[in-house]
Specification:
Layout (H helix, E strand, L loop, with lengths): L1 H13 L10 E7 L1 E17 L2 E5 L4 E6 L6 E2 L4 E5 L2 H36 L5 H33 L2 E3 L4 E6 L6 E2 L4 E7 L3 E7 L12 E6 L4 E10 L10 E7 L10 E18 L4 E3 L2 E8 L2 E6 L2 E5 L2 E4 L9 E5 L10 E6 L1
Parallel strand pairs: 1-22
Antiparallel strand pairs: 1-21, 2-11, 2-15, 3-10, 4-6, 4-9, 5-8, 6-7, 8-10, 11-14, 12-13, 12-15, 13-14, 15-20, 16-17, 17-18, 19-20
Helix pairs in contact: 2-3
Length: 349
């Protein structure tokens, strides 16, 4: 069976070459090492932002400018939306004028009260005149305080007419545009925290024994074939009644381009630790859905099938018996090689 497989692989790869011999290809190689690690099993999970915010407005007004689009990345404090403040500015100006008028009245009533107070002590005015002057003075002070509080409220409204990002993140939705009239509480944009990006992946209950919080896992973002390191953040305490699957939440680093609900492949430990041959992921090539590596034999490329038992970031563990410690495998230049093609080793990693 093994001889037949090698023959088929050789036939499929060498058929297009016909009889023409190719020139030596320059390659970089590395040596296989042996390590004790666990096998892995791959499951498909879903990306999501654990922390999201529906950013809304505290004030009613006209949208003057929206400074973001869906997919934009923003930092905490960045301006997202500005509301028109012309009416507010007019009210603020009027309120400040009223306060200035009140200051003049307050100064006048204070002088009048102090004058009557001095006369009252000498019995030069009646108690009623004194009380009336005191009341008018105190009323003017309270009126000034009330107008100052009204001005402060208007200034707060103006400040809140500029809406800022509450945290670092990515704009998930834009719900208004310039010229829209918005009421208090209206959602303007929704924001996902770029620092709280997770993968939610289902696992069989039999794998739970190999997982623990804080454990590092290899994750592949399928849309980009991008490999990242994840960390087990939480394990759901309730399994699905029918399937007995349990969801695991895995935190991954912030990504430049990503979308919620995209898929990711999570490589989970699926056994106790065993000794495997370790090679870089770059050494593995795919052909018709199968994994192979190129070794070097008599200065020629020798193609060998491999079975990947574990994923470890930029490396993989294989349990194929013909992949042994010290064997040389090609890690650069392998994508254009053909079986039995002459090669020239230009470097080793």
């Amino acid at each position: 069976m093994r001889s037949l497989l090698i023959f088929l692989v050789f036939f499929l790869f060498s058929f297009p070459l016909q009889a023409q011999e190719q020139p030596p290809a320059s390659v970089v190689v590395t040596k296989v090492v042996r390590e004790t690690i666990a096998e892995t099993q791959s499951v498909i999970g879903t990306l999501f932002y654990e922390r999201t915010s529906e950013v809304s407005t505290d004030v009613t007004g006209l949208v003057e400018e929206i400074l973001v689009r869906e997919g934009d990345r923003v930092l905490e404090g960045d301006i997202l939306v500005r509301l028109d403040t012309k009416l507010l500015d007019s009210d603020i100006s009027l309120k400040r004028t009223r306060i200035a008028q009140n200051d003049l009245r307050l100064q006048n009533t204070e002088k009048h009260f102090k004058r009557l107070e001095s006369l009252y002590k000498e019995s030069g005015v009646s108690e009623k005149d004194y009380d009336d002057a005191l009341y008018t003075f105190q009323d003017a002070k309270l009126e000034k305080q009330a107008r100052q509080e009204e001005l402060a409220n208007l200034l707060i409204k103006k400040e809140r007419s500029v809406i800022h990002a509450p945290f670092n993140g990515i704009i998930l939705t834009k719900d208004v545009d310039s010229g829209a009239w918005v009421q208090q509480g209206k959602k303007l944009v929704s924001l996902g925290s770029s620092d709280d990006l997770f993968v939610r992946a289902p696992i069989g209950e039999s794998l739970l024994r190999y997982l623990k919080k804080g454990q590092q896992l290899s994750v592949t973002l399928n849309a980009f074939e991008r490999k990242v390191e994840g960390r087990v953040e939480d394990i759901d305490p309730v399994a699905d009644v029918k399937t007995k699957t349990i969801f695991v939440k895995i935190r991954i680093p912030a990504q430049e381009v990503i979308a919620a609900n995209m898929s990711a492949t999570v490589h989970l430990p699926a056994s106790t630790e065993k000794e495997l041959s370790i090679i870089p992921r770059a050494a593995v090539i795919k052909f018709q859905g199968k994994d192979f590596v190129y070794s070097v034999k008599d200065n020629k490329a020798a193609i060998l099938p491999v079975h990947i038992a574990a994923f470890m970031g930029d490396k993989v563990g294989v349990d194929s018996p013909h992949i042994v410690a010290g064997m040389v495998v090609v890690v650069e230049g392998n994508e254009r090689l053909r079986p039995d093609q002459a090669i020239q080793v230009t470097g080793e990693k």
